[in-house]
Amino acid sequence: MKNTFGNHVCVTIFGESHGSAIGTVIDGLAPGIPVDTDFITEVLSRRRPSGAISTARQEPDPFVIESGVFEGRTTGTPICIRIPNSDTRSKDYSATRWLARPSHADYTANQKYHGFEDYRGGGHFSGRITAALVAAGGIVIPALAKKGIYIGTHVSRCGGIADRVFQDLTADIAALNQMDFAVLDKTAAEKMQARILEAKSRGDSVGGVLETAVIGLPAGLGEPWYDTIEGVLAHALFSIPGIKGVEFGAGFAISEMTGSQANDPFRAENGQICTATNNSGGINGGITNGMPVIFRCAVRPTPTLSQAQGTVDMQRMENAELASKGRHDPCIVHRARIVADCVTALTVCDLLTGRFGADWLVQE
Amino acid sequence: MKNTFGNHVCVTIFGESHGSAIGTVIDGLAPGIPVDTDFITEVLSRRRPSGAISTARQEPDPFVIESGVFEGRTTGTPICIRIPNSDTRSKDYSATRWLARPSHADYTANQKYHGFEDYRGGGHFSGRITAALVAAGGIVIPALAKKGIYIGTHVSRCGGIADRVFQDLTADIAALNQMDFAVLDKTAAEKMQARILEAKSRGDSVGGVLETAVIGLPAGLGEPWYDTIEGVLAHALFSIPGIKGVEFGAGFAISEMTGSQANDPFRAENGQICTATNNSGGINGGITNGMPVIFRCAVRPTPTLSQAQGTVDMQRMENAELASKGRHDPCIVHRARIVADCVTALTVCDLLTGRFGADWLVQE
Amino acid sequence: MKNTFGNHVCVTIFGESHGSAIGTVIDGLAPGIPVDTDFITEVLSRRRPSGAISTARQEPDPFVIESGVFEGRTTGTPICIRIPNSDTRSKDYSATRWLARPSHADYTANQKYHGFEDYRGGGHFSGRITAALVAAGGIVIPALAKKGIYIGTHVSRCGGIADRVFQDLTADIAALNQMDFAVLDKTAAEKMQARILEAKSRGDSVGGVLETAVIGLPAGLGEPWYDTIEGVLAHALFSIPGIKGVEFGAGFAISEMTGSQANDPFRAENGQICTATNNSGGINGGITNGMPVIFRCAVRPTPTLSQAQGTVDMQRMENAELASKGRHDPCIVHRARIVADCVTALTVCDLLTGRFGADWLVQE
Amino acid sequence: MKNTFGNHVCVTIFGESHGSAIGTVIDGLAPGIPVDTDFITEVLSRRRPSGAISTARQEPDPFVIESGVFEGRTTGTPICIRIPNSDTRSKDYSATRWLARPSHADYTANQKYHGFEDYRGGGHFSGRITAALVAAGGIVIPALAKKGIYIGTHVSRCGGIADRVFQDLTADIAALNQMDFAVLDKTAAEKMQARILEAKSRGDSVGGVLETAVIGLPAGLGEPWYDTIEGVLAHALFSIPGIKGVEFGAGFAISEMTGSQANDPFRAENGQICTATNNSGGINGGITNGMPVIFRCAVRPTPTLSQAQGTVDMQRMENAELASKGRHDPCIVHRARIVADCVTALTVCDLLTGRFGADWLVQE
Description:
The structure is a homotetramer. Chain A is an alpha+beta fold. Helices cover 28% and strands 23% of the residues of chain A. Chain A is built from 9 helices and 18 strands. The first copy, chain A, has helices spanning 37-47, 91-94, 106-113, 130-146, 169-176, 186-201, 229-237, 259-262, 333-356; strands at residues 4-5, 10-15, 21-27, 64-67, 69-70, 73-74, 79-84, 150-158, 161-162, 208-215, 243-248, 266-269, 272-275, 283-284, 287-288, 293-299, 309-313, 318-322. In chain A, strand 8 (150-158) and strand 9 (161-162) form a beta hairpin. In chain A, helix 1 crosses helix 4, helix 1 (37-47) crosses helix 9 and helix 7 packs across helix 9. The longest helix of chain A is centred in the last third of the chain and has 24 residues, at 333-356. Chain A is globular and about 70 Å long. Chains in contact: A-B, A-C, A-D, B-C, B-D, C-D.
């Protein structure tokens, strides 16, 4: 398993920040899904850094579909998408080879791979690898939309500033999917960007919270044990670099409620069963109940800082100081948002394919 | 996979609340692990309800090891542990067959299994099934201890009351593993129990937060993508009924910090690398860094209430009211704690076996 | 996975020959499948030894369905079937603890499990464990039949005697499924039984070949690489004790043909595509073509013999002699036949569930 | 799973015969394995067609290692090897789009992928995809050799001609690994080539049998049920296009023996246990016994023929005739041999990694 997401629709990712290419192989997708390369380009652009609030690394993320797509549609066989690396400045990193960046993966990679890891720019741990997940998501998001399943993520908190809560989910998701900086309240968006720039000016960074909504999922998806919707989604979401918490529905706040406050009463409406509230985040007993699936991911502040930090020279086993000079983001929350969308879309595809079969996504 | 936890040490669970038995099959454990049936009995007793703060269902949880243990040690072949159900009062539930308990799995089970589910007492969704996970945990916890790996969970919040934070982890874990009501601060424990009884008296329930520490894990465990330690643990933990959030290290609070506050500086001590703080919860880039692994699970208040709640008669598609009369807990946080320990122990075993091989757990 | 068969319908087996019970957990089966316990009893009886040609061990194979079946139908949650061991004579085996029976698993078990294995009566390697697979098969065979999918296996060779070839597959399969000694040609059956008795009288044993036909499978099942129909079936079939070869269609004989002899020309018949011959065994490029799937398994002669054989005392590392005194079969081919049926049925269920979804088996 | 081989060392393949590239992603290999690109080129050249006995398609198989290798060694993260397609003549195939080549995958692909498959040159079913498996094998074969594990395959039968049997395995394997046409008996090799040319002159093809030996495997590898060595190897081997049977040790011939003939008596030699004969092919009870693992694969004659064959126009549902004009081989047995070596090497790596842990392959 390891670098492969999913049981039925399996997404394998590969690549290092400063290798020749990164990419993905998607296996198990239904044949006949139209592949919109413009849309893939668009979602990839959402992940890319832009403007003052992001790293200076500017890479157009051109991609090549090497297999699995023929005459504009998926064939049903593995789809390889390759994204060449072009703007790599390896010399930025070699000088600090043995200085483990605090809260980054340099030390743990060294422990796991015994020094054979490609350390340049974070290697296989680089946030750049998420571009492969985004490209894969770019194939399935339109297919889910045809089935009435829509996904949207907003930056619900960033640098201590809160966005407004979700209101009309259909409208909010549609709006978010047109935004580069996915914040529903424009004033909040401006305040967040100011906080990011302020942190940058100090050589520091900020974190935040992403909130995702999925609408249109049928009831009855997920399993009572192990492959609960919460468990399966969280498993995938924790791959997004910097995620340190995942909560569903009311999440940690539900632990402070009483049962009578927390419970979502059922009610019949137009021959359908729904709930009056959605503290459960659309999931009961690990299984979707037909209400919107709602969850939040805690994103830590970027660990790479230009201000000096205490660290260790792993080769000499001596305490040292490190102020990173490479390109890095004062905040990744707004960039991680499209990754959350895509990881969610791929996970949902996997669950639907397991439940309804290999061709369901394109069946009328 | 579905009802099977793990890739290398695979734990399959089965059973319904009111069937003849529940149980587990554990496959992939090293041969030669001593099996202490008294210890299994002890951990099972920690999960059982006791006293006024729990359900009146009193079941001694006798268990039978049907296979995989010979002359007191694991054989290396699948271990089946069967726990017969004895104290089942099915008539309690039949009258409310079609009334979906709010925030319980009755409705989602009905959607998934089309009415063929065993609805009695929650069927396969019952918290009782966690006894199988606890029995499985009872086999591996002592084996991990021999390797210097210790796990402890406390009720860090319950009904709005906070326990003290972890201090000396070794001592705290040792203390917790002797407690029935796992709260480090005795005064807090009394207040929590008062809150639980108060909720019970109103026919209501309360929730809380479990905090778990794992010490002794080697650095280098986990994978950069998908099978991150966070993702693998969260996947398993969300199976514990009522868990709606999982966070590692500083968790959601880290999203409010700056990078310079959140980062854990490395330092060399006695030829070993450790970190000055542990906001990362012992995990960088999805991989253990040798520091204690710390996480918290949000536990919702028990959804089954004796006060009336709005619901739907699923057969007639009519709004209805339901006040549960069966036995149920006003709080499951303190009982879920041993389940968190055991799910963690099994997950850690799986990760260690994948990394170090099938026999590692018993190698000198 | 190890002791778990299948990806979507997962069959886990457990138990030792002389433990308290053997059994199986079947996860992922559609809810609503009628469970016919008489039929399970019947298929279990086909596996049991009977008469002079088999071991004297006579065990009625009573079984208990512990979970996953409610009001006569599958619930969709894991089905545990437990088969208690009753007629165990452990003293038969203890004297020869360290004498590895040639071509049996005593030595390899000792190497793998370091002496912790339950050695009595073959332990977890005993052919008795196949009863668990047969019980599981007894649940799915009737469900497949409702979908028009039928499976039959005959002893095509035994002790050097050949049965007649398959003719009218529908009639042949129906006939085989009524037989205890599954040979289509009555004269051949008598000759085979004579050979078995003759071998028995010499303290020797004989082997044979099982040929299986599956009719009614839709075209388009299987994968081009890795999860080819041949690969998936062979993977499962090699679990049947004593199987040393699996071949599909013309099998090894096709390697002696020319392409023009071996190829199966397509032709259109009544708006359907079929092939004029079936040297491919119903499989092209790893995927079913709608023709009957045909394969053969080579079954070795039973390794346990009452005549003396050269072996090694594993403890003393000294050469020794061994003449087994326990109960054993002079031939297992005719008993393995129902195991082949059941392993095939379970594998086919798994493939169909992966392709058509979790509920397909009960959909109209 | 589908296009992914292995549980611990996972090899995913992608690509179509006439797409832009084929390739593989290998995940789970130990870090620090030296990668010898010259050796990869050499094994790829063994798979390539050469001379009159093969297809005229001449492609140098240049490959690019896109990730997972750094400074000449594996990093432990996924290795992507991409092999661009250059010599593609798609027009050869378009005219016969709807004429299903007998015993090829055209019809089954159409049934599975509903017409969306890339039909050109066999698409994802093309034998060309095996180059990806060979490239992956080229990384692990030298690593296995450092551990004393050697693999060799000879064409034991081709066009009705037999090679000599294995004698001194160490010497035979060494010799085979220097040969382009892997036949131990030079006279037999010449006769086989004559038969191939003769078949070609008639627009026909021939098949054969591959026999593989693996020496140096430790005893105790494999599982008693499901993941038997036979099952795991056969699962992978049946992916090699044209394989219709796999047998271990004496294989189908063992079914004609008596137990006393078939059994391999154990004996102690120099403090080690070995067997006097090897009818079991180095495997007892699904687990290696330390003797050489021996198996044979039946390879069907190439289905693509230049002589006319009966088929069906899948679009018009009319009977038709087809004489293939594209490039194709009169025999693939000698080319499939290196694929058998590589599939075996990858499978063995997977088994060893599961048993001994992620780093074993490079541990001293």
